[in-house]
Each structure stands twice: as structure tokens, then as C-alpha cells.
Design brief:
Strand content: 15-25%
Largest sheet: 6 strands, mixed
Number of helices: 11
Order of helices and strands: EHEEHEHEHEHHEHEHEHEHEH
Structural class: alpha/beta
Shape: elongated
Helix content: 40-55%
Oligomer: single chain
Distance between the termini: 10 Å
């Protein structure tokens, strides 16, 4: 894929700590990755938040991690108090989170191979009503977020508890460099991988900035994010699957 993105400048809006692998992939394909974070991840550091769950961790049948951030910050907080009980299975929303769990030593991770969202998780046999009824499920996540998974598992008879281990917030990103690239015709695409990222983009660049970006292709990782883009006038939206590889393939298919 070397050179497939030659001459293209791609704005990558992931949080700084999660952006580098994708930026490197774009650069290896010949493009220029312009780092423009639209989300900042702030870990919860209060030990009391983790202690109440950690002391009962072996009473859960399954722990579900909603994102790589949930893996990193959730495990960090829990493992400060105790080691992971061998009988508690782990699950993840997608392959990125599954790889993060693998790096932490979890060999068997339940995760969808397609879909990468709550709907895909709920379609797995391990989350069917007969599989979760009467089971205790811990959902490790950031503050807020969708409630579909927890509500559906509760409706299927599971005992659900949440652990919020990080917060998401809008970063103090300077919009001027991005808008200057767009104004001189040097911004070829924008990558947005969360709905909050769309909202933060609107907050950071304002209506005038949105008008400048209205003709720029926006690559997103889920149809829900595409719908939010459309609400704000970003009509040239391309929905890819989640994950670095899928986003890179979509970029190369579009520009190649």
C-alpha cells in the first residue's frame, strides 16, 4: 500500500494517546497525518471508585470492556487493589479492545469479529438470554455513553453493574491550523471515530469553520457517527468499519 495516499493530508481526530498507530499507517502509505484531537481521555484516579468493585470482582461471571481506554484505565485501577480472578471471563466491544486485553495477558476474549458495537455484542451466543440469565456482568466504561448493552442484558435476566474508569472531554485544540489547511485546499480528508468527536468539532470550529469543511470527505467508523455528521452539514461522509486497518482501507479505496 506504499504511496497509495501520496500527496494526501488526512486529519486524524483520535485522542493523542490512541492516534499514533493510525497516523503511522497513513504516513507509511505515503500520506501526511495531521493530528487534530477532538477527544481527551481523563482517567479516574480515586481508588475508592475501584475498591468497591475490586473486592467483589470474583463474584462476577463476566467483565465487559467497552473500549481500549476501558481496558487500560479499568485494569490499572482494579489491579492496584488485587489480581484478576481466574474464573472471571472477559469480553470486548471489538478487536481493538480485544487486542488490548490480549496485551494484558487475557488469552480468551469474547468479542465480535464484525460490527464492533453493542448490537454486534448482543448478537453473540455468549450474550444470548439463556447464556446471561442469572449471571453477574460488570461493564467497564467511561462516564456516560450508551446504555443499550446494560439495559438489554438486564432485560435478559443478567445482574449488571457498571464501573466508570475514565471521563471524556473536549480538548483545547486550536482550530486555526486545520482551517488554514482547508482554506488553501491542502486538507483531503477528516477521520472521526466517535459521535462526541463530531460534537466537539462543531464546538471547536464553529459554524463558519463547518462551512469550510462542508466539501471535505469525512471518514467515520459507524453509521451513527455519519448521521451525526449529516446533522451538522458534513454531507460527504464515508462510513467504514471500526479499527485502523478498516479506516486505512477506506482511505486508499477512496483516493486510489
Amino acid at each position: 500500500m506504499g504511496g497509495a495516499l501520496s500527496g494526501r493530508t488526512i486529519a486524524v481526530t483520535r485522542p493523542t494517546a490512541q492516534a499514533e498507530a493510525l497516523c503511522r499507517a497513513i504516513e507509511e502509505a505515503g500520506g501526511e497525518a495531521f493530528r487534530f484531537p477532538l477527544l481527551e481521555i481523563v482517567p479516574v484516579t480515586d481508588p475508592a471508585v475501584f475498591e468497591s468493585v475490586a473486592l467483589r470482582l470474583d463474584t462476577f461471571d463476566l467483565a465487559f470492556f467497552v473500549s481500549p481506554n476501558a481496558v487500560e484505565h479499568g485494569l490499572a485501577g482494579l489491579r492496584q487493589i488485587r489480581s484478576w480472578p481466574p474464573g472471571v471471563r472477559v469480553a470486548a466491544v471489538g478487536q481493538g479492545s480485544a487486542r488490548a486485553l490480549d496485551r494484558h495477558g487475557f488469552a480468551e476474549v469474547i468479542a465480535p469479529t464484525q460490527g464492533f458495537d453493542s448490537e454486534a455484542v448482543l448478537a453473540l451466543p455468549s450474550f444470548a438470554p439463556e447464556a446471561v440469565r442469572g449471571r453477574a456482568v460488570l461493564i467497564v466504561r467511561g462516564e456516560g455513553g450508551r446504555e443499550l448493552l446494560g439495559e438489554t442484558l438486564s432485560a435478559r435476566g443478567a445482574r449488571v453493574e457498571h464501573l466508570s474508569c475514565y471521563r471524556r472531554r473536549c480538548p483545547a485544540t486550536d482550530p486555526a491550523p486545520l482551517l488554514e489547511l482547508a482554506a488553501c485546499g491542502r486538507l483531503d480528508a477528516l477521520l472521526i471515530t466517535t459521535g462526541e468527536g463530531v460534537d466537539h468539532l462543531v464546538r471547536i470550529i464553529g459554524d463558519e469553520g463547518l462551512a469550510r469543511l462542508s466539501t471535505i470527505p469525512v471518514f467515520v467508523s459507524h453509521p451513527r457517527i455519519a448521521a451525526r455528521c449529516h446533522l451538522h452539514g458534513l454531507e460527504q461522509t464515508i462510513a467504514a468499519d471500526a479499527g485502523d486497518d478498516a479506516l486505512l482501507r477506506a482511505l486508499i479505496a477512496f483516493f486510489g
